[in-house]
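In the design runs reported in the main text, the only information available to the sequence generator was the tokenized backbone. The following block is the verbatim input for one such run; it is reproduced so that readers can re-run the procedure and compare outputs position by position.
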């Protein structure tokens, strides 16, 4: 990818700053239309918000409750397209809303029927009322005191970081150049217009100055930092909200059905979701002042989740049960003086500065494709690019495979699973799991380095695999082995291994309770 940048002797059509869901989706859209596209990410792809979601591709039952029908319709439509274009990464997940009061069954039943109707032809299975026995059959660990039954509905589940990597691969497949560890340090201006960027390869400190017809700011929680590069007097447009998740052993759910609590003490929806042989419980909505690549859960957020988990699960989880705690920051478009981030819309917003810098922010993972289409349409106007039709509604995501489940633990690699299996056939030792807590093998570490631009132990253990989020302590145990495998692939020495392990251990301790 760096070679492509060095060899490029012409102006780029589009340069995108930011390698999260929005930036990667925009790169896929722009490249698939035939525009010469470059994406620059300061750290690793999906390092920030985009790897820290609730792992749901959903219309958003809460947005229906708020009356934001347009967002629900958009998200349900996009959910259908994502399941169509990435069946190896997205699956149908049943949810149950437990009913403890007489009015809950008819109230939530009607709301979820409306959810079905809004989904239309792209809907999953229809929602339905469940008796007490039917509810307990699917949720054997639910709190049974006063339980009357439940309402079941369906939504989508995915692995956010794996989708991000697949989007980077899709963009590259379509002709885009995508670079991680490439930090934009300034904008190039000519006659008051933004005409390019200056960035540094953070591994080598090599500096680049590149020109483009359009520069897109898709930096999520760092949106205002890039806008300040363009105009130091620009008013902040992003309000940060922190969401925290607690990961528990699978016994706390006891099945493949998720729990959705539609109204917690702070008015948020709470989920307990089966994910990769664990249970993810969340989330919170806490206003935060400062953007950080490594946000940390506040004690009161953890207490909130643990209290509500105890309220709805028969076995009350204790701190000793917690496998990992992860936090993410949402870049919400500021609603003036509102302090209630839960009430701020999740719609996306596009702004174009006087200098022509295009900023896209807000939105949610589920609607990334539509956001990207909207962004590239605007970019075409700003850069006077030849108008070309968006093709991503029917563009298969890299690795597309209709029967990926046949690959077992490698299902989310899609067609690449066969290549990883070939590595193991050639050297059987590469197929032996690194730790009892994970199905991750040395072959996957090698593949992450060779084919997925993984550069650090964190890249592998946090995003190419999800070990850090699934069991932080066990991930610390395997860091030395992962570092050794990577060093062999990357041609690094013992001092690199030692430094990587130390840095990873320091990071992973922040995920322990």
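Verbatim output:
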């Amino acid at each position: 990818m760096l070679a492509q940048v060095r060899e490029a002797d012409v102006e780029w059509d589009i340069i995108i700053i930011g390698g999260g869901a929005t930036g990667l989706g925009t790169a896929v859209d722009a490249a698939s239309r035939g525009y010469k596209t470059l994406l620059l990410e300061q750290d690793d792809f999906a390092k920030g918000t985009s790897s820290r979601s609730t792992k749901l591709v959903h219309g958003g039952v809460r947005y229906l409750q708020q009356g934001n029908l347009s967002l629900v319709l958009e998200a349900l439509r996009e959910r259908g397209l994502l399941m169509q274009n990435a069946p190896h990464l997205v699956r149908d997940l049943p949810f149950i809303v437990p009913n403890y009061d007489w009015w809950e069954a008819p109230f939530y039943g009607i709301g979820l029927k409306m959810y079905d109707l809004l989904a239309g032809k792209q809907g999953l299975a229809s929602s339905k009322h469940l008796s007490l026995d039917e509810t307990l059959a699917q949720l054997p660990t639910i709190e049974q005191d006063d339980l009357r039954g439940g309402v079941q509905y369906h939504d989508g589940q995915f692995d956010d970081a794996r989708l991000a990597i697949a989007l980077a691969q899709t963009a590259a497949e379509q002709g885009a150049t995508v670079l991680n560890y490439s930090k934009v340090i300034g904008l190039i201006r000519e006659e008051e217009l933004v005409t390019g960027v200056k960035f540094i390869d953070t591994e080598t400190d090599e500096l680049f100055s590149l020109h483009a017809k359009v520069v897109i700011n898709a930096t999520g929680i760092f949106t205002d930092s890039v806008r300040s590069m363009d105009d130091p007097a620009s008013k902040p447009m992003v309000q940060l909200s922190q969401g925290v998740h607690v990961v528990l052993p699978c016994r706390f759910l006891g099945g493949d059905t998720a729990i959705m609590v539609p109204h917690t003490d702070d008015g948020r929806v709470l989920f307990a979701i089966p994910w990769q042989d664990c249970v993810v419980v969340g989330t919170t909505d806490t206003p935060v002042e400062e953007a950080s690549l490594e946000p940390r859960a506040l004690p009161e957020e953890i207490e909130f989740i643990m209290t509500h988990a105890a309220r709805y699960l028969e076995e009350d989880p204790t701190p000793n049960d917690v496998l990992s705690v992860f936090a993410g920051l949402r870049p919400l478009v500021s609603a003036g003086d509102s302090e209630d981030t839960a009430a701020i819309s999740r719609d996306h917003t596009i702004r174009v500065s006087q200098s022509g810098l295009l900023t896209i922010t807000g939105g949610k993972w589920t609607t990334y494709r539509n956001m990207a289409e909207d962004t590239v349409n605007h970019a075409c106007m700003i850069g006077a690019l030849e108008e070309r039709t968006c093709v991503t509604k029917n563009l298969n995501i890299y690795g597309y495979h209709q029967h990926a489940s046949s690959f077992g633990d490698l299902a989310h690699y899609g067609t690449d699973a066969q290549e990883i299996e070939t590595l193991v056939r050639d050297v059987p030792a590469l197929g032996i799991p690194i730790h009892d807590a994970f199905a991750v093998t040395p072959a996957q570490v090698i593949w992450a380095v060779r084919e997925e631009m993984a550069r650090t132990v964190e890249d592998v253990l946090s995003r190419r695999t999800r070990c850090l989020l699934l069991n932080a302590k066990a991930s610390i145990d395997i860091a030395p082995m992962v570092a050794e495998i990577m060093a062999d692939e990357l041609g690094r020495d013992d001092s690199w291994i030692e430094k990587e392990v130390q840095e990873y251990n320091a990071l992973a301790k922040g995920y322990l309770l």
